[in-house]
Design brief:
Length: 183
């Protein structure tokens, strides 16, 4: 059964790699075709609607972009499903941990009642021993300064506000570039 699962993962990974290569090649071919059309018809630069209609008729730009959008939607769904699965698995881990703790407590209670510090079983050797010491904070305000660790982090939201008020040494606002919005 492990072979099947491993083989599936390898096949799935290979297919994703091949799909990525195919889409990159299609993207390059499409961009080259668009550049040729725009060089042949420079007037298209002036009218976005005409440019979009011409490119739609002369290339497969819409089909390509639709396929890309569908893949984005699929991978967003997969991401969300994976997050839900991880959350459920984390809850399962916590249940297993609680069950372990329950049985550890039962073992310790029974051995304490029997006044036993060691029990040899075929599955394991049980020992009751003193746990290592641990630090308990009774009043944090009374602790000396050297007991604290300060973690220094950059607050981009504060820097953004400071930059709006004036220049800040060591930081600047970028133009933000462009981003794709899919609705």
């Amino acid at each position: 059964m492990l072979r099947v699962a491993t083989g599936f993962r390898r096949d799935f990974s290979t297919n994703i790699h091949k799909e990525r290569q195919r889409m990159e090649m299609r993207s390059e071919a499409l961009k080259q075709r668009i550049e040729v059309i725009l060089r042949m018809f420079p007037e298209l630069h002036e009218d976005e609607d005409l440019r979009a209609d011409t490119l739609d008729g002369e290339t497969d730009i819409k089909l390509f972009l639709q396929r890309c959008v569908i893949n984005v939607m699929i991978y967003e769904s997969e991401e969300q499903a994976t997050k839900v699965t991880i959350e459920k698995l984390q809850q399962r881990v916590q249940r297993w941990q609680r069950r372990q703790e329950f049985y550890r407590t039962l073992i310790q209670d029974v051995m304490a009642t029997a006044d036993l510090t060691k029990m040899v079983l075929p599955e394991a050797t049980l020992n009751i021993q003193n746990a290592p010491t641990k630090v308990l904070i009774t009043d944090e305000s009374q602790l000396p300064e050297e007991a604290f660790e300060v973690k220094k982090t950059v607050s981009k939201s504060k820097i953004r506000q400071m930059l709006k008020d004036g220049p800040v040494t060591g930081a600047e606002l970028s133009n933000g570039g462009q981003m794709l919005v899919i609705r």
